[in-house]
Amino acid sequence: MEAFTQHTGTTVPLMNDNIDTDQIIPKSFLKRIEKTGFGEFLFDEWRYLPDRTPNPDFILNEPQYEEAEFLISGDNFGSGSSREHAAWALADYGFRAIIAGSFSDIFYMNATKNGLLPIVLPLEARQKLAALPADASITVDLPNQQVIANDEAYSFDIDSTWKHKLVNGLDDIAITLGHEKEIEEYEKGIEGYWG
Fold it and tell me: What are the pLDDT digits (tens) for 105-117?
């Protein structure tokens, strides 16, 4: 997992409340088990017309937002089913953080496990971020737990365990492999025990 310390990039506002995981990635695209390749289908029913051409009225299809790395959104982001594919699709598309008013618990956990930083900010802060020009950059400083834009800093909370994992790029597999020597010693100690 890529470490997240301080990252600067542009934003895209999608200020809808209650964006659920089926809107993030429809169930028809959940047939793969790899974590990659889902960005193409992010917000699929909003991004594409029935003939699979880009919907010109959807904000992610506007050229000035193509490289955005931070999604600014409403309340209750990621509600609905527990599909981890929603976090995979957002990360694969290129988002590094989602800034919302609140998140469903399961989506929040899935996001952090996959290196996608979920940030909770109040509406006033999100409205200011959403009003930024498309080419304006913000900085997300995870060690100091701040979103910085136009010389304003917005503080956010994050559990210290998740912060440690994200700052150090540690997923569950990397943490387990950090104990490889102890695991090998344990296995040596039980060799022959079963047979």
Answer: 999 999 999 999 9
Identify whether the C-beta of residue 68 lies closer than 8 Å to the C-beta of residue 11: yes
Q: Is 46 helix (H, G, I), strand (E, B) or coil?
A: helix
Q: What does the pLDDT look like over 3-62, one tens digit per residue?
A: 999 999 999 999 999 999 999 999 888 887 778 889 999 999 999 999 999 999 999 999
The candidate with the shortest Cα–Cα distance to 134, out of 36, 55, 63, is 63
Q: Give the domains, in start order, of the chain with CATH numbers.
A: 6-190 (3.20.19.10)
Q: Between β-strands 146-149 and 70-73, what pairing exists: parallel, antiparallel or unpaired? A: unpaired
**To the nearest 10°, the Cα dihedral for 171, 173, 175, 178?**
-140
- Structure pTM? 0.89
Three-state DSSP at 111 gives helix
CB hemisphere CA count around 62 (13 angstroms): 13
3-class secondary structure, 47: helix
Contact predicate 119/140, CB 8 Å: yes
Strand order through the sheet with 146-149: 117-120, 97-100, 70-73, 6-14, 137-141, 146-149, 152-155
